[in-house]
Specification:
Aminopeptidase, 4 helices, binds coenzyme A, 32% helix
Length: 172
């Protein structure tokens, strides 16, 4: 499948809203269940992201095929508005749309996230994944991420608790 990886712009607003709300509606087991975003919420988020990318405090990429957004990945600082003592690391988030998974899109997004982090001379990247999300964990391990912690009881689905696994990729 041919796809393009590119930065986001404000004109992507409607398509990004459709994309994220599609992932939310799917209730994919590996992601938190939440309410769909409103246009106003999404506009605020996208503006913050586009501005952050311009200032270098964020990194964000979209995957697009045939005019449709089918994947998204971002790096952001972990703590409140870039605390001076946590600028050595960023947190990775990545999703790909149903029907487009398993085709290499997530891998390409992650590869570009890591390349950017290296250029920015970050010490490490971190992510959070459900313990039960074996496929995603294997994918992250392939890129060198390793489990550094487990947070038990973090999510509750029905009567079942799901632990969160924290993974890190050290870049130096
Ligand atoms: C995890 C995710 C971002 C990976 O993107 P992708 O484009 O499917 O990944 P790629 O095609 O580059 O790589 C395929 C690998 O991804 C993993 N993967 C994870 N979830 C997958 C899914 N639903 N379908 C296919 N592959 C999946 C597999 O390990 C697969 O490797 P394998 O060949 O060893 O089975 C994407 O599948 C996704 O959004 N899944 C649902 C939401 C989710 O779990 N997000 C991660 C939250 S931390």
């Amino acid at each position: 499948m041919r796809f393009v990886i590119r930065t986001a712009r404000m004109s992507d607003l409607a398509e990004i809203l459709r994309y994220f709300n599609g992932v939310i509606e799917e209730r994919v087991p590996g992601l938190p269940f939440r309410n769909k975003y409103t246009l106003a919420e999404e506009r605020k988020w996208l503006k913050g992201t586009v501005d952050g990318v311009r200032k270098g405090s964020r990194f964000y990429l979209l995957a697009e095929t045939g005019g449709r957004i089918v994947g998204s990945a971002g790096l952001s600082y972990s703590s409140e508005e870039h605390a001076l003592d946590s600028k050595h690391m960023m947190v990775l988030g990545v999703t790909v749309a149903e029907g487009y998974r398993g085709k290499g899109i997530g891998s390409e997004l992650i590869r570009q996230m890591i390349a950017w982090a290296r250029k920015k001379r970050l010490d490490l990247l971190e992510l959070n994944v459900y313990d039960t999300n074996r496929d995603a964990r294997r994918l992250y391990e392939r890129f060198g991420f390793r489990k550094v912690a487990e947070i038990p009881f973090r999510t509750k689905r029905g009567n079942k608790y799901i632990s969160h696994v924290v993974m890190q990729l050290h870049l130096r």
